[in-house]
Amino acid sequence: MTGPATGGETSGAGAPAARARRELTYAVLLCLAGAGLALWASTRTWAVELAARPAPLPPVRAARTGAGLLPWLPALAVVGLAGGGAVLATRGVPRRLVGVLLLALGAAVAAGGGYGLVAGFGGTVSRQWPAFCLVGGLLAALGGGGVALRGGGWPAMGARYERRARPGVGPAAAEAAAAGPVAGRRTTEAWDALDRGEDPTAD
């Protein structure tokens, strides 16, 4: 009866940790995917202007990208990509602050995409790329909002290895304890004990 109960308690204790890791993964993916999509869309051609020239010369075609029309847009997207990595490297209150920053950045990127959808740029305008920026900004904002609300309790990157790095609980320490007192001592200490006529294997 004791065995199954212990297994159930272990499984129940591990469920919240597994859920926290999934939430962390989803939030980071949303931030990275949203910022990456916005950065890519901002480098596409949003408008094409034709400048007339005297006949018989053809008009001059001038392509304008989202980065050219809104220079701050790709910069915010790059910061959003870096913020997605910062979520993994932080924990607690600093991680929540990173989430607030990502939420604000995503909202700003979405606003830039929305402006591109309604702005009257000269020439032929392509509305699909601003729409992608809008979607990317919303995804990044959604991920940042999740980090700001729940990220304080999520595990940090490499947290599973922290216990192994603590003195006395790592695999090497466990093997030394299992091997007995001699394995836990330095070789010189064992020889000194023999010189004094002591048994180094005694507790």
Based on the model shown, name its key terms:
3 strands, mainly alpha, 203 residues, three-stranded antiparallel sheet, single chain
Give a description of the structure.
- The chain is mostly helical.
- It has a domain at about 15-50 and about 65-150.
- It contains nine helices and three strands.
- Strands 2-1-3 form a three-stranded antiparallel sheet.
- Strand 1 and strand 2 (about 60-65) form a beta hairpin.
- Helix 1 runs parallel beside helix 4, helix 1 (about 1-40) packs antiparallel against helix 5 and helix 3 (about 70-90) packs antiparallel against helix 4.
- It is elongated and about 110 Å long.
- The two termini are about 35 Å apart.
- Residues about 160-170 and about 175-185 have low confidence and may be disordered.
- It holds the Pfam family Trp_oprn_chp.
- Keywords: Membrane, Transmembrane, Transmembrane helix.
- This is Tryptophan-associated transmembrane protein (Trp_oprn_chp).
- InterPro entries: Trp_biosyn_TM_oprn/chp.
Give me the count of strands. 3
The class by helix and strand makeup works out as mainly alpha
For the residues shown, what is the average pLDDT? 79
Give the DSSP E fraction (strand runs of 2 or more residues): 5-15%
Largest sheet: 3 strands, antiparallel
Shape: elongated
SSE series: HEEHHHEHHHHH
Distance between the termini: 36 Å
Rounded to the nearest angstrom, the radius of gyration is 30 Å
Pfam families: Trp_oprn_chp (PF09534)
Organism: Micromonospora carbonacea
Protein name: Tryptophan-associated transmembrane protein (Trp_oprn_chp)
Biased composition (Low complexity): 174-185
